[in-house]
Amino acid sequence: MGIYLSTPKTEKASEDGENDKLRFGLSSMQGWRSSMEDAHAAHPYLDETTSFFGVFDGHGGKGVSKFCAKYLHRQVLKHEAYEVGDLGTSLQKSFLRMDEMMRGQRGWRELAVLGDSIEKLSGILESFIWSPKGGEANDHVDGWAFEEGPHSNFSGPNCGSTACVAVIRGNKLVVANAGDSRCVLSRKGQARNLSKDHKPNLVAEKDRILKAGGFIHVGRVNGSLNLARAIGDMEFKQNKFLPVEKQIVTADPDITSIELCDDDEFLVLACDGIWDCMSSQQLVDFIHRQLKTENKLSAVCEKVFDSCLAPAVGGEGCDNMTMILIQFKDPSNPSAPVTNQPQSSTESSEADMSEEKAE
User: Fold this and answer.
1) Where do the TM regions start and end (predicted)?
2) What pLDDT digit, counting tens, does each position of 134-159 carry?
3) Could you give all domains of the chain from N- to C-terminal order, each with its CATH number?
């Protein structure tokens, strides 16, 4: 069956949580794929006033997606721009920082632990050959000091991951995206895309790819990768004469910042295993229908998976699926979520947030 199983794995890993401003549910399912390469992060209390949510869709292995889920929010939190309230800059720099951190001995070792079983074995064997001096490995984790070792010249992983992250502080929502995972807001029942799917044939992406010396074949970068932006994938980031944002594939995210209002009901972050099967508006409509009878948000995510899962191998509905559903609470009644009735919607109502501020 190649990269697919003979029967899908439909067991779901789900979680629910909340703070005084929102509640969330999330779930992930391996499905027909032979391995689970998605990862996610949900931190309703990144600090006292800020929430962080992210989905990461790995390709070529799960090491990079899990690395991002483990470290990206920490980098955002510690960045000097975050300390002065510049959420967009802290997100943008932290996306790029992931590529830096995955290089060298320490990056290699962390990816070996987080990655697939053969990588784990390699990491265990390597530890008999070399390990950092006692206490050095875990001190100041986010400082990420350089470590000497047999993989000191490791240029970074050739597997990669998308990253779509939402940070909420008060009424401010900042979304950072690299790749084709997607963030969608439901405002009065209308789907509003807060991210752009970075496919190679988009004019701006194609222009960068070609100028950096790459090519596009059958919709794929150098005939291989069907994404134009991703964290990792270091084989596409080797031009020493270009800055990181102008490489064939870049981790540089688009940043979108909006002010939330009383008409905003919920936010969805999901990997493309969902978007392959549903448009943004179709998913928003599906969620609204489910919320009429289902209060547990993770259960709504699970029902989305069941609806999307292909009945047989091949085509749409065969990918890993990961989704976070964030519902905003009514400020006048924090114990109850916003319950605006959606307007009648059509596919044409699905719109990018072009009228909102892009940082």
Assistant:
1) none
2) 333 333 445 788 888 899 999 999 99
3) 19-103+155-331 (3.60.40.10)
With b meaning 16 or more CB within 10 Å and e meaning fewer, what string describes 26-53?
A: bbbbbbbbeebbbbbbbbbebeeebbbb
**Helix H or strand E encompassing 291:** helix 280-291
pLDDT tens-digit series, residues 85-136: 999 999 999 999 999 999 999 999 999 999 854 344 444 444 443 444 433 3
pLDDT digits (tens, 9 = 90+) for 9-63: 999 999 999 999 999 999 999 999 999 999 999 999 999 999 999 999 999 999 9
Q: Which one, of 172, 177, 157, lies nearest residue 271 by Cα?
A: 177
- Using CB atoms within 10 A of its CB, is residue 194 exposed (0-12), middle (13-18) or buried (19+)? buried
91 and 76 Cβ atoms separated by less than 8 Å: yes
Specify the amino acid at residue 112: A
pTM: 0.88
d(CA 167, CA 331): 19
Contact 55, 38 (CB under 8 A): yes
Q: Which residues pair with 275 in a beta bridge?
A: none
Mean pLDDT, rounded, of the chain: 88
